[in-house]
Automatic annotation (TrEMBL):
Residues 18-78 form the HTH tetR-type domain. InterPro entries: Homeodomain-like_sf, HTH-type_TetR-like_transc_reg, HTH_TetR, MftR_C. SUPFAM superfamilies: Homeodomain-like (SSF46689). PANTHER family: HTH-TYPE TRANSCRIPTIONAL REGULATOR BETI, HTH-TYPE TRANSCRIPTIONAL REGULATOR RUTR. Coiled coil: none annotated. Keywords: DNA-binding, Transcription, Transcription regulation. Residues 41-60 bind DNA. This is TetR/AcrR family transcriptional regulator. It holds the Pfam family TetR_N. PROSITE patterns: HTH_TETR_2 (PS50977).
């Protein structure tokens, strides 16, 4: 990638790759929404995007589930930044709650397209499971930033447990009738601890 006045620019090859990836993703989402995830094949996606089946697998080696998600790096980078860049004095769990509250089924407002995509993911076990795996790939990075920001050892079991619990919240709470209320209930528990018998 080149740089022009400090701004990163993509070369032609990178732009073409990004366009191909986006075209495949758009084709898959459109087909999934029209026909249902389970009814759509990789061959149909390739045909819809006017490309070869091998091209689909070259860009999305994890298979059909991965076609509507990034590789998980955006999630990882976002959740790490939520902790690292939080306002001074803001507790880590508050920053994590706010980060998750702005995403997917927890967001107060979503465009109609994002709402339909979120509903598709939440109603399709394979997509929901893949999304959960993407969140869980962030566990080590989240544990490291929690440890760094709290002055603890990244190997501390409580740090690793907290990272794991937080990353399970999206899957746990998103399927509830009121996802935002469920998200808040889980974070209330994490912030205050269990008080029952």
């Amino acid at each position: 990638m080149g740089s022009l006045g400090g701004v990163q620019t993509m070369g032609r090859r990178e732009r073409r790759k990004a366009q191909t990836r986006q075209a495949l993703s758009d084709a898959a989402i459109g087909l999934f929404l029209r026909h249902g995830y389970d009814s759509v094949t990789i061959a149909q996606i390739a045909e819809e995007a006017d490309t070869a089946i091998a091209t689909v697998f070259a860009y999305f080696p994890d298979g059909k589930e991965s076609l509507i998600f990034d590789d998980g790096s955006e999630r990882r980078d976002g959740i790490v930044a939520a902790v690292r860049d939080r306002p001074e004095g803001q507790p880590i769990l508050r920053a994590l709650r706010e980060f998750l509250a702005a995403r997917g089924p927890f967001a107060a407002t979503l465009s109609p397209q994002l709402r339909r995509r979120t509903e598709l993911v939440m109603s399709t076990p394979a997509l929901r499971g893949y999304q959960r795996r993407l969140w869980n790939r962030s566990q080590d990075a989240l544990a490291e930033i929690i440890a760094a920001e709290s002055g603890r050892d990244p190997g501390d079991m409580t740090v690793r447990a907290l990272a794991r619990y937080v990353l399970e919240v999206p899957d746990l709470a998103a399927g509830e009738p009121d996802p935002r209320r469920a998200l808040d209930a889980v974070f209330d528990l994490l912030e205050t601890g269990w008080t029952g018998p």
